[in-house]
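Continuing from yesterday's entry. The apo prediction looked reasonable, so today I'm repeating it with adenosine-5'-triphosphate included to see how the binding region is handled. Same sequence as before; SMILES copied from the compound registry.
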Amino acid sequence: MSTILDVTQLSLTQGNKALLNNIDFTVYPGELVGIIGPNGAGKSTLLKCLSGYIFPSSGSISLQGKPLSSYSHQDRAQHLSYLPQHSEPAFSFLVKDVISYGAYSHPNQNNADELASIIAQTNIETLLDQPLNQLSGGEQQRVHFARILLQNADIMLLDEPTASLDIGHESQLMNIITAQCQQGKTALVALHNLNTALEFCDRLLLLQQGELIAFDTPEQVLTPAQLRQLYHDNIRISRHPDTSKLYLTPLRK
Ligand SMILES: Nc1ncnc2c1ncn2[C@@H]1O[C@H](COP(=O)(O)OP(=O)(O)OP(=O)(O)O)[C@@H](O)[C@H]1O
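Holo prediction written out below.
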């Protein structure tokens, strides 16, 4: 199968600090890839490079076999969507207008049915006529995710899309991403909740201090030895009694 994303020898240096150091990986269509790693590991920096929002110091990023830098803005927006970790609403845009910006890259398509379905899936029916900057953090996150879904790009780059969500909405959002990937979309999602990463992701890309430490199936990446190296004795590593999957919780000392 041909790849959808090829990252080769990607490095980014700011001052004398290497934020990303010789990162190599490839992603296939339909994959749900979790990007994990401790605070400051470089997850957001990597996603910003992949989105074209910032430029690497060296290395290359190919999207569907073509250099990312060769895409026009509109072309790129049709192939790739990006949900940043933080986005402060500067103006009091209405929720329904914010979502509609998702269709900006394909203005001639009639997407009324798709829009209605996305609004229902993300549970934002009652928010549509409200100003975005008067919503809670989790509500704003769901609105931005709805905008990304409407953009309908081949690859979604999502930076901690569940960070402000309650566990029910977290599950809903991850299941929507899973369904999208089953229909052929590809997702790269930065996550801190490792149980969520274990439950939903096909592969995990583990970063630490700007280095790619591992890129493999969740159980191959999150070995007890690796977890101890990353999080020391701050976590409890067990197996879930129902699923036998690895189960990680903060440890009270
Ligand atoms: N514009 C910048 N200039 C210099 N250093 C930066 C810049 N942006 C980020 N960094 C540094 O790069 C490193 C990686 O930051 P990044 O935001 O990518 O980490 P992260 O893995 O997403 O962390 P978190 O889990 O806390 O969100 C951090 O040490 C950060 O201080």
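Comparison notes:
- The CA atoms of residues 177 and 239 lie 25 Å apart.
- The pocket of adenosine-5'-triphosphate is lined by residues 14, 19, 37, 39-45 (CB under 6 Å).
Will overlay with the apo model tomorrow.
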